[in-house]
Design brief:
heterodimer, A: alpha/beta, Rossmann fold, two-stranded antiparallel sheet, 13 helices, B: alpha/beta, 2 domains, seven-stranded mixed β-sheet, five-stranded mixed β-sheet
Chain lengths: 338, 328
């Protein structure tokens, strides 16, 4: 283990720093593979990229302790967060391809899957904001069950305009629940720029309404996000209540693959391209002599092989049988037991 | 709060069911507005805070989305939450999270979400447009939610216990008009009323009334009056709306050949429309007259007593419908 510059890495070992890089590259590579499958019409529904947001997704989730029962809840641009929690690339590809042996057996899309107690992550629903009260309830259950788990939820600039977001934040703050909410300012909600979304000066300012803690960090700085998330998680676990952690980042692609993002000025995209979170992270590791370009090449080979294998397995997997649609609504028909 | 008490009111039956289940299973807890130290707006949770503590009887902000959402999250983690709506009308504020999140959880991702959402429903107490809702039809077309609507103290207790033990989300609708008006001797021993089973409340051979909730008493009154003319009325108290006891409905219709569906929610798009359709599909050959529905007017529930009385179904409306069917 190499001693790391404390200002950069704090308590993370070299192995952990490289593990973070593995998840960063896995997220990006898996999404690139999904794009290829989408273009071959093998992805059934829409495809949503997290390009430019892999850093904060991975870094925040990496600060959790899944052995203690921590739970992370992604939105569509937080694939990296559930990979950290243990989601398997093959399952994600199967989900996108609507396969019969995907985690949801073809009932649900993309990363809408996962059980909080079993998997350490829970898929979102499409009604934005709804997961905040649900995550508050997960944190509440953890407290009632005498676990020391922390719940970490992602929400966006758009999602934080909903009533459900406010109700969930308010309830969790009143109850001082161990909840960390990462609020991503990625500049656009579909085509709507943030100035049409909120008159708040920053998204972190919304914390004033709840009386919870708040912090704003550079969302494309993996170290900064990890440090801030760790602080918030430690505080939550110690009984300090809710933190709203704002990460400033940028959505480098359209809302989904069909959206060419024509409403975003090209100069802004170019500017943010220079702040790519993975390049910045790896550059810092090189500059601090923690890793070399060869290390990253090795990692990339491993990631590529895993994604190749996952793709092959997912492509071979069967589609569900139509008649399964009638089953599994209520307990008792045995559908989910089999 | 012992198990089973003579002369138990409908509301006491609900309180007893919660207390018994909380004593039996430490995963059961209650959350809602004013449910703790105040004991609930109707005193449904009176004594529960003292007995089970603030961790299991949680006063919440005025926040129906947070109540149903947090209950759902806790349920996924293995808890058995009861989420109280101060009036069931306010479930509309949490409609989204209940029908989209809780109700779909098992079907979408295989996750059991055993919450009970309960609260006072119904008219007749001059609550006006926002405190009189009968919400069952709003939820019937959103699969994944069970819906029960007891009309007796026995069923209020037994169905609530069943709902709390059920592995899926249950909307438990309680009628506030019945809270203190209905008293019954309940069994001393423990009992549970299975979800999905109707109760044939009165046996008859000339005409069936399919009903539930507070309307069972309107059906009783009409049946008594019709009996004076020698008409024998059968009353089927559905008790469960989803899943509903189709067999009990069809058997009764096959026996009497004439049917009225009586409910308190407005007529158009009400639950009765579904039951009428099932009868038409599956028991058409048995019918000697058209299926008749008696329900509230297709307007919001008005406040002033003369307006509300005109709006709600009553004995006379049922008798008029019955006579029409008998003449047919």
């Amino acid at each position: 283990m190499i001693a790391c510059a404390p200002n950069v890495t704090e308590s993370l070992s070299r192995e952990q720093l490289l593990e973070i890089d593995y998840y960063l590259r896995l997220t990006r590579t898996l999404e690139e593979r999904l794009v290829a499958l989408f273009r071959q019409a093998k992805v059934i529904g829409g495809l949503y990229r997290s390009l430019g947001q892999e850093g904060e997704s991975v870094a925040a989730a990496y600060a959790l302790d899944f052995k203690q029962g921590d739970v992370v809840q992604p939105l569509i641009r937080n694939l990296g967060a559930i990979l950290v929690a243990g989601a398997k690339p093959v399952d994600i590809i199967k989900q996108y391809m609507a396969k019969g042996d995907s985690p949801t057996r073809g009932r649900e899309l993309n990363i809408h899957f996962g059980h909080p107690a079993r998997d350490g992550f829970i898929g979102q629903i499409s009604m934005l904001g709804d997961m905040i009260p649900v995550m508050a309830g997960i944190a509440l259950a953890g407290r009632m069950q005498k676990k020391s788990l922390v719940a970490l939820a992602f929400i966006g600039d758009g999602g934080s305009s909903t009533g459900a977001f406010y109700e969930g934040m308010n309830f969790a703050s009143v109850q001082r629940l161990p909840l960390v909410v990462v609020i991503e300012d990625n500049a656009y909600a579909y085509s709507t720029p943030i100035e049409k979304q909120t008159a708040a000066r920053t998204l972190a300012d919304k914390a004033y309404a709840f009386g919870c803690s708040a912090e704003t960090v550079d969302g494309n700085d993996v170290f900064a996000v990890h440090r801030a998330a760790k602080r918030a998680i430690d505080n939550a676990r110690a009984g300090g209540g809710v933190t709203l952690l704002e990460v400033k980042t940028f959505r480098m692609k359209g809302h989904a693959e069909h959206d060419n993002q024509s409403y975003v000025p090209v100069e802004i995209i170019d500017e943010w391209r220079g702040r790519d979170p993975i390049e910045r992270y790896e550059q810092t590791l090189i500059e601090n002599k923690i890793a070399t370009a060869e290390d990253f090449e090795e990692l990339q080979k491993r990631v590529r092989a895993e994604v190749d294998e996952a793709t092959d397995e997912a492509e071979r997997a069967p589609m569900p049988r139509g008649e399964e649609a009638a089953r599994g609504l209520f307990a008792g028909d045995g559908y989910w037991d089999a | 709060m012992g198990i089973g008490m003579p002369e138990t009111t409908y509301i006491e039956a609900i309180t007893q069911a919660m207390a018994e289940e909380m004593a039996r299973d430490e995963r059961v807890f209650l959350m809602g507005e004013d449910v703790g130290s105040y004991g609930g707006a109707f005193k449904t949770s009176a004594g529960l805070l003292e007995r089970f503590g603030a961790e299991r009887v949680i006063d919440t902000p005025i926040s129906e989305i947070a109540i149903v959402g947090a209950a759902s999250g806790a349920a996924l983690m293995g808890m058995r939450p009861i989420a109280e709506m101060q009036f069931i009308d306010f479930i509309t504020c949490a409609y989204d999270i209940l029908v989209n999140f809780a109700a779909t959880s098992r079907y979408r991702v295989g996750s059991s979400c055993p919450i009970v959402v309960r609260g006072p429903a119904g008219g007749g107490v001059h609550g006006g447009p926002f405190h009189s809702l009968n919400p069952e039809a709003m939820f019937m077309n959103r699969p994944g939610l069970k819906i029960v609507y007891p009309g007796t103290a026995y069923d209020a207790k037994g169905l609530l216990k069943a709902a709390i033990r059920d592995d899926d989300p249950v909307l438990y609708i309680e009628h506030k008009f019945l809270y203190r008006r209905i008293k019954e001797d309940l069994p001393q021993e423990e009992f549970v009323v299975p979800i999905g089973k109707a109760n044939v409340r009165r046996r008859g051979k000339d005409l069936s009334i399919i009903t539930w909730g507070a309307m069972i008493y309107v059906a009783d009154e009409a049946a008594e009056e019709l009996a004076k003319d020698g008409v024998s009325v059968e009353i089927v108290d559905l008790r469960s709306i989803i899943p509903f006891d189709e067999q009990a409905i069809l058997e009764s219709v096959a026996k009497t050949n004439r049917v009225i569906i009586l409910h308190e929610a407005p007529l158009t798009g009400g639950a009765g429309a579904e039951f009428a359709a099932r009868i038409a599909e599956k028991a058409f050959e048995y019918l000697d007259a058209p299926i008749k529905r008696v329900a509230s007017l297709d307007v919001p529930t008005p406040y002033s007593p003369p307006l509300e009385e005109f709006y709600l179904p009553n004995k006379d409306k049922v008798i008029t419908a019955a006579r029409e069917l008998l003449r047919y």
